[in-house]
Each structure stands twice: as C-alpha cells, then as structure tokens.
Design brief:
With 138 residues, this protein is an alpha+beta fold. The longest helix has 21 residues.
C-alpha cells in the first residue's frame, strides 16, 4: 500500500531533516550529517566544491568541522514542489560564528534542495548553496 504524504507531512519531514543537518553541522558530527543525505546525494558549496556520495560527503564534512562555535540559522523555508517521493525546497541561511568580539555574521545565502523520501524519512538528494555575502564556510 502506497503512503500518501500531505503538504503538512512534507513540510514537517523537510523541517526535521534540515534541523538535524544544521545541528550536526554546527556540532561537527560528520556521521550524522552524512546520514541526512541519500547514498547518492550531493552538495555544492561556493569555495568548497561539489561532493557526491556518502564517502565524498564524509571526507568533505570531516574537513569542514567548525574550529569555533557557530550556528546556522535557516529561515523562509519554502516547499516549492513536492510529490510522493521528492520535494524541491528553498531556504535562506545565515551563519553566525563566535569571534573574540562576540557573534558575527559569517555568511548570508540560500539553499536550493532536492530531497527524496528514503527509508521512511526525507533526505537530501541534492543541496546547492549560493552566498550573497560573507567569507564562505559551510
């Protein structure tokens, strides 16, 4: 029997995987980050390149572990299109980093994501970031 997802189900599932990714990213938990991606998933970040598949993602995110406290803040997440096993989503992102003077904005940008419903959960199939200001980062 096929499961039918409502828009509310998709929004909740997408929000959950985005929170899991963001918190794992800020904490430097590479394995938890990789688990938010499909096995053939990819990410493309300005200045950091494109990485596809769990092994490549694991290597990239392991190199990108934060060296100081940081927080990614996601806002304006919009499910643009969805069907039973795929969702196209746009989110704004602000990266805050703690410096010697306090918290500062490191990056302002946007994620364009394609997520697949895989194994009972939504996972990133493709994550592309664009930055409108800042110095790079994840």
């Amino acid at each position: 029997m096929a499961t039918t997802h409502t828009l509310a189900d998709v929004v909740a599932g997408v929000g959950n995987v985005m929170a899991a990714y963001t918190q794992a990213l800020d904490d430097g938990r590479t394995e938890d980050i990789v688990e938010t991606f499909c096995p053939d998933g990819s990410c493309d970040m300005p200045g950091l390149g494109r990485h596809e598949g769990h092994e490549a993602l694991r290597g990239a995110y392991d190199r990108w572990k934060p060296r100081r406290p940081q927080r990614h803040l996601l806002a304006n997440t919009l499910v643009n299109e969805w069907r039973e096993s795929e969702a196209r989503v746009t989110s704004d992102v602000v990266l805050l980093t703690r410096t010697d003077r306090g918290w500062a904005v490191g990056v302002v940008g946007r994620y364009e994501d394609v997520l697949h419903h895989d194994g009972g959960a939504w996972r990133f199939h493709r994550r592309v970031a664009t930055f409108v200001t800042g110095n790079g980062g994840t």
